[in-house]
Recover the amino acids of this structure.
């Protein structure tokens, strides 16, 4: 009887040890290869068997044992591991990797991602598109002004009107191509598809304010024109509605908007490149709000592609009686109601040494 008990005790100990050892090996084989978050590109070819997939994963350093990977898939009846190109990490472990391979993904190493910053001009957009796709800058700009293409857009988007077809407008879609981050399938993406994504974003934003726009007394074209000025003149999101109010107040007072950024656009000069001459500021141009005959008038069209904050600020401007604004080098914006106060603020900023020096 004592011998029997000893035998049973040994069996229990061996069984317990085997279970502990098995769990340890299982957890080791199942666990992450490392704590690294590095993403490794892995291509699973169409028609690959589970054993072939395991071999690929082990070779890439994503699993510890291809045979264990195969055993795991059989034990848990895993099937339909999808062929694709994946980005996997050594810290995922077998279970997570199997889940990813079962679900498949849309990762495509050929995907083109372009981030257009707020306030970007169409010409700069064209340069960025040319750098990321199989189109030239000239092709993009040609499409922007293509009459046939533009007429097709007028039938598609409620916010596009004949106003964009004015001969004096440099780039007909300036102001309407919403700046954001966009992804496209590959470099062969058409210019029309790129613009469609951007116009759809503009549609999404403007549609939320359609009733307000229609009740404002201003057209979408006029509001986007103001928004483009607010984008380039506004120092930060907190002051944009105040800047918009200044422009609206000046229009109502039949004053020139006096916006330097419109003059730079009129002459297609980047503010970082050079200063404008007095003659340029005083030259009549439908974009130049500093020029003669522009009292109470907007530029003929937008001068950049504004972000959402500037668009909303131009739809819902602050109620004020301000006619002037100026910013110091710390991006503090000062609003005033008359020219005398405006000049006093400028002098105070200069006296403090806070004047912006370009």
């Amino acid at each position: 009887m004592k011998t029997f008990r000893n035998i049973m005790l040994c069996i229990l100990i061996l069984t317990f040890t085997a279970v502990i050892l098995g769990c340890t090996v299982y957890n080791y084989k199942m666990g992450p290869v490392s704590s690294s978050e590095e993403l490794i590109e892995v291509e699973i070819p169409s028609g690959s068997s589970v054993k072939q997939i395991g071999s690929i994963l082990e070779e890439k350093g994503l699993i510890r044992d291809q045979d264990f990977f195969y055993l795991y898939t059989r034990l848990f009846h895993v099937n339909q591991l999808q062929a694709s190109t994946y980005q996997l990490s050594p810290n995922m472990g077998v279970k997570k990797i199997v889940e990813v391979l079962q679900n498949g993904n849309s990762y495509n190493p050929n995907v083109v991602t372009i981030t257009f910053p707020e306030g970007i001009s169409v010409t700069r957009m064209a340069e960025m598109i040319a750098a990321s796709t199989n189109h030239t800058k000239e092709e993009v700009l040609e499409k922007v002004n293509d009459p046939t293409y533009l007429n097709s857009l007028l039938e598609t988007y409620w916010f596009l009107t004949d106003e964009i077809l004015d001969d004096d407008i440099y780039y007909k879609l300036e102001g309407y191509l919403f700046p954001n981050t966009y992804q496209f399938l590959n470099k062969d993406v058409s210019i029309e598809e790129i613009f469609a994504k951007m116009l759809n974003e503009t549609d999404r934003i403007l549609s939320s304010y359609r009733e307000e726009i229609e009740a404002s007394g201003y057209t979408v074209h006029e509001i986007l024109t103001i928004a483009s000025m607010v984008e380039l003149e506004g120092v930060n999101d907190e002051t944009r509605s105040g800047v918009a109010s200044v422009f609206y107040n000046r229009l109502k007072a039949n004053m020139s908007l006096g916006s330097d950024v419109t003059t730079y656009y009129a002459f297609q000069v980047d503010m970082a490149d050079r200063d404008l001459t007095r003659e340029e500021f005083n030259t009549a141009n439908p974009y130049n709000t500093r020029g003669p005959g522009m009292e109470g008038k907007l530029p003929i069209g937008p001068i950049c592609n504004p972000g959402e904050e500037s668009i909303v600020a131009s739809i819902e401007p602050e109620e004020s009686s301000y006619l002037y604004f100026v910013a110091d080098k710390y991006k503090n914006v000062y609003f005033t109601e008359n020219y005398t106060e405006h000049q006093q603020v400028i002098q105070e900023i200069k006296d403090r040494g806070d004047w912006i020096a370009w």
